[in-house]
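Technical annex, item 7. During the second reporting period the consortium partners agreed on a shared format for inverse folding records so that results from different sites could be compared directly. Each record opens with the tokenized structure and is followed by the designed sequence. A conforming record, contributed by the partner at site C, is shown below for reference.
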């Protein structure tokens, strides 16, 4: 054993013993309701392909067209020679779809957070951050070197207390997820907006799991709460409901103009590829022209959630198509996931550090691609495994 890496071996052994070692499975097919995983055909209840667009023929055709007209890689960062007319078209289309002044796109939703937070606040400034915010928000906040003040999850009263107890001569920023990815609950954005307005603080919401899900035709949490023009910054992703890859910052023109000058992933990392942009444009077309997929997603979610609860499963406080089946300890969650896989259902266990210790779960993700019979197949598997492991009676 190399002494230089002995500590890694000890850490991995400890993770294995605690049931926290991540088992990374291999997908051998396009994303869809059913997948080929590690050589097995299984029902997909794992991916964030909310609207079933990841293998949609319209998006594939959009990617092909962009490939033929603009090639593959951008070969440069956006600020030097990597901004194509396709990027600008996508940003204009997304701004219209979201009902905002302006949009700037990034390589991923994670990058959008890393780009935005350090460009808006720095040393001597304050960030008020929901305690359950996504890792990309946490990392972006750390990179900014601003002081981070956490407020209790989805608790506007505690946010107000934290603001009133703080003091700074610098800038201030409130950040919250819109939909919390592990619990499926929605931020109380109207109340948070009122506090931001009262204290004149910039307000930023990460809508990664609201894009394509909440609001009219999937326009997101700001549309859902009719807060257009009131939220300063919306972070979004095109790797979930949009079915492709990429991130966006939507909001006021002055902010997106500033990000084009100071956001490091914009200045120092190559732009989104042309095929990805072409597929994203096709996804916007789909969402602008019909609410069919969004409506089907919610019907499927309501059916799956209600039936799991009827069986006796604890599905937490989800208000969205994210359905956490709460199991408690990580070894039980991993065993439950393995048993589901044997029954033909792919649903991964989620444990620490993604969620707090003692809060392990199966994160169930249905989509608009699932049929009624698919969901019945899943429910049958959950019932069998739940009874076999003593989770339900």
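Designed sequence (site C submission):
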């Amino acid at each position: 054993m190399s002494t230089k890496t002995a500590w890694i071996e000890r850490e991995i052994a400890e993770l294995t013993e605690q049931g926290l070692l991540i088992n990374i499975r291999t997908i051998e097919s396009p994303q869809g309701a059913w997948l080929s995983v590690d050589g097995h055909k299984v029902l997909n209840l794992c991916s964030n392909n909310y609207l079933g667009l990841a293998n949609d023929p319209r998006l594939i055709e959009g990617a092909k067209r962009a490939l033929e007209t603009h090639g593959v890689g951008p070969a440069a960062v956006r600020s030097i020679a990597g901004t194509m007319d396709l990027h600008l078209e996508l940003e204009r289309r997304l701004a219209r779809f979201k009902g905002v002044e302006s949009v700037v796109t990034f390589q991923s939703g994670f990058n959008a957070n890393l780009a935005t937070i350090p460009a808006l606040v720095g040393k001597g400034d304050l960030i008020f951050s929901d305690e359950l915010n996504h890792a990309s928000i946490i990392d972006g906040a750390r990179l900014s070197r601003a002081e981070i003040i956490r407020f209790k999850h989805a608790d506007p009263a505690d946010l107000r207390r934290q603001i009133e107890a703080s003091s700074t001569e610098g800038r201030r920023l409130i950040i919250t997820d819109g939909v919390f990815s592990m619990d499926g609950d929605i931020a109380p954005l109207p109340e948070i907006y009122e506090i931001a307005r009262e204290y004149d603080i910039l307000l930023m919401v990460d809508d990664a799991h609201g894009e394509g899900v909440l609001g009219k035709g999937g326009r997101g949490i700001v549309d859902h709460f009719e807060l257009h023009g009131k939220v300063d910054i919306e972070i979004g992703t095109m790797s979930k409901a949009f079915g492709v890859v990429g991130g966006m910052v939507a909001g006021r023109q002055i902010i997106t103009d500033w990000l084009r000058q100071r956001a490091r992933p914009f200045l120092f990392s190559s732009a989104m590829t042309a095929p990805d942009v072409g597929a994203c444009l096709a996804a916007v077309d789909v969402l602008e022209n019909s609410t069919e997929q969004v409506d089907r997603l919610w019907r499927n979610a309501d059916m799956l959630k209600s039936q799991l609860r009827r069986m006796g499963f604890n599905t937490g406080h989800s208000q969205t198509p994210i359905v956490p089946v709460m199991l408690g300890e990580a070894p039980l969650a991993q065993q439950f996931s393995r048993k589901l896989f044997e029954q033909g259902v792919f649903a991964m266990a989620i444990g620490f550090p993604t969620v707090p210790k003692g809060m392990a779960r199966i994160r169930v993700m249905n989509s608009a691609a699932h049929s009624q019979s698919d969901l019945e197949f899943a429910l049958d598997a959950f019932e069998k495994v739940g009874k076999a492991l003593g989770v339900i009676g």
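Residues 67 and 157 are 50 Å apart (CA to CA). The domain at 19-50+291-388 is CATH 3.90.1150.10 (Aspartate Aminotransferase, domain 1). All partners now use this format for quarterly exchanges.
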